[in-house]
């Protein structure tokens, strides 16, 4: 195992219907998770989307949007997450960090 204290996920897009899109709920595919049963471990875990900004704040160009995994979505290891600020559409397809806390074991 490597030294990472988080698991990786991929931001697929927003929750949507046939004609409407709900930007307040993001869909995330978790790494090495392929069923609805395996997602139960991740419910309630914190999610971080890191991005680089053009101007530095507090000495760094890297900023973060925090969220939380709320529930599974479908049967293939995708979960729904709500972020404090909605993720930008440019983030679709990028990697997010799924922190392994808070623990619910």
Please, could you describe this protein's structure?
The protein is an all-beta fold. It has strands spanning 6-16, 21-30, 46-57, 60-73, 78-83, 95-99. The protein has a six-stranded antiparallel β-barrel with strand order 1-2-5-4-3-6. The radius of gyration is 14 Å and the shape is globular.
Low-confidence stretches: none
Number of helical regions:
0
Radius of gyration: 14 Å
How much strand content do the residues show? over 45%
Oligomer: single chain
Instruction: Please provide the ordered H/E string of secondary-structure elements.
Output: EEEEEE
- Mean pLDDT equals 95
* Distance linking N and C termini: 21 Å
Key features of this structure:
105 residues, mainly beta, six-stranded antiparallel β-barrel
Task: Offer a quick outline of the entry.
Helices cover 0% and strands 55% of the residues. It has 105 residues and is mainly β.
Question: What secondary-structure arrangement, pairings included, does this model have?
Answer:
Elements: E1 6-16, E2 21-30, E3 46-57, E4 60-73, E5 78-83, E6 95-99
Antiparallel strand pairs: 1-2, 1-6, 2-5, 3-4, 3-6, 4-5
């Amino acid at each position: 195992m490597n030294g990472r204290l988080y698991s990786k996920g991929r931001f697929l897009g927003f929750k949507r219907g046939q004609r409407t899109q709900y930007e307040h709920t993001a869909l995330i595919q978790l790494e090495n998770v392929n069923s609805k049963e395996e997602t139960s471990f991740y419910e309630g875990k914190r999610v971080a989307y890191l991005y680089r900004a053009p101007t530095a704040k507090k000495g760094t160009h890297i900023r973060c949007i925090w969220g939380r995994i709320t529930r599974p979505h479908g049967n293939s290891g995708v979960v729904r997450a709500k972020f404090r600020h909605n993720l930008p559409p440019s983030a679709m397809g990028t990697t997010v960090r799924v922190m392994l806390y808070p623990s619910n074991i």
